[in-house]
Amino acid sequence: MHLRRRCMILLAVILTGMVGANGVVLAEDDRSANNTLLPVIPMGQGDACVEDTGFMRRNHMELLKHQRDETVINGVRSEQYSLQECLSCHAVYGADDIPVTVASPRHFCRSCHDYAAVSIDCFQCHASRPEPGDMPADHPFRIASPGTASVNGAE
Amino acid sequence: MSSKPKDKQLTKKLTGTAGFDPTRRSFIGAMAAAAGVTLAPGVMLYAISRSVPVNAKALDAEVSSAVRWGMLIDLGRCDNGCDDCVSACARENGLRGFDRPETDAQWIRKIEIRNPKTGNSKSLPVMCQHCEDPPCVDVCPTGASFKRADGIVLVNKHTCIGCRYCMMACPYKARSFVHEALEDQKTHAPRGKGTVESCTLCVHRIDNDQQPACVDACSDTGGGAMLFGDLNDPESEISKRVAMYATQQIRADLGLNPGIRYRNL
Q: Tens digits of per-residue pLDDT, B61-113?
């Protein structure tokens, strides 16, 4: 009897946790604290993405794939659908004000792909955050990486 | 002069295989004509201006085969101990070694050649020679190794399976294989484990109207030995220079017509 009551309490606690996780809009930072399974999608910069959100959710991979061939093979360097532009608008900053890499679960691409269990290999080759040189001159990321910054600059 | 269109054709066909080249006779004729007109500016032509637009192409336009990028390296100005081009390349493209010289990526290297009979030695930078008929493209089973319309030979790492046939086919040992997982690559130079890579002629810079990093470094701190330009444009500095001076291609006997030419080899 004693054991049965304990089990019931435990089950109630677990169920409450799950409902809370699904029903509440969660703060971006404490994903683990909220014990949620949903992806945390950070807001991008600027007014709007290059296409509607719904379209991007379904088709971003097609846009990227098309753009990559255009760029590598035909030398087309337009920015609209480039991975580089995705990463600069959707950069997620860590506590040190430096964009996180894909090593962090908070990374824009990773947060969703982790949730969807889709393994992407883009970042085996591609940089997963903007370059320090793309930041304003007084930005901590740029200051923290003087070597990289000087390469991009005139030196 | 009537030799004008021929000049253009010749610039393209300067194979350096003097002994067997059917175009040699007309080449010599054109040389004489060109020399008469252009000898006067002489060596000062080496003052290469960085502000000269490299590329008229808009960012969102496709590259065209009207252009053929090439490089002329004057070994008379290339110092033995100088490796500014090599370090500039590594900086620009984020190449880092793993203290394994046998397998570390190397897009450009300095080699020293020596004539054992006379003891005369030369130091020269060697990178992908951006052949007109690249053997690496012939052997690639997936089409990942390809020549861009403007003559730049590249690896499309999206389709490279890392078989390394191209490395074996290249007579210049210009290609490297990435053996290690990498991180913090340059945004403009994606590179990763399991793919082959080589000099891209700084394709990201060319598309943005800049010269390759090695050429800039050579004119800034090196001897100013490297000249980059369009071999198809008879008015370009490089075309004038290859028409004026005797220049060589490495292993010209293979008939691959590399875009990289050497002077004083």
A: 899 999 999 999 999 999 988 999 999 999 999 999 999 988 999 999 999 99
Over residues B216-243, the pLDDT tens digits come to 999 998 889 999 999 999 999 999 999 9
Specify the pTM: 0.74
Between A77, A124, A127, which is nearest B60 by CB?
A77
- pLDDT tens, position by position, A50-64: 999 999 999 999 999
CB-based contact A131 B193, cutoff 8 Å: no
CB contact under 8 A, A76 and B57: no
CB contact under 8 A, A75 and B57: yes
Query: How is chain B split into domains, by residue range?
Result: 4-263
A66: tokens are 């098309």
What integer pLDDT is reported at residue A97 of this predicted model? 85
Upper half-sphere CA count for residue B250 (Cβ side, 13 Å): 20
Distance from CA of B183 to the nearest CA of A (A): 7
Helices B237-244 and B24-38 cross at an angle (nearest 10°) of 110
Interface contact B185-A131, CB threshold 8 A: no
* pLDDT of B55: 59
Count contacts between A and B (CB, < 8 Å): 63
Fold of B4-263: Alpha-Beta Plaits (3.30.70)
CA atoms within 13 A on the CB side of B102: 0
Measured between alpha carbons, how far is B68 from A92 in angstroms, rounded to an integer?
Answer: 41
DSSP state of B103: T
Which of the pair, A52 or B51, is modelled with greater confidence?
A52
Cβ pair A75:B63 closer than 8 A: yes
Q: A68 at the B interface (CB within 8 A)?
A: yes
Letter string b/e over residues B158-197, b meaning 16 or more CB atoms within 10 A of that residue's CB: bbbeeeebbbebbebebbbbbeeebeebbbbbbbbeebbb
**By the CB < 8 Å criterion, does B191 face chain A?**
yes
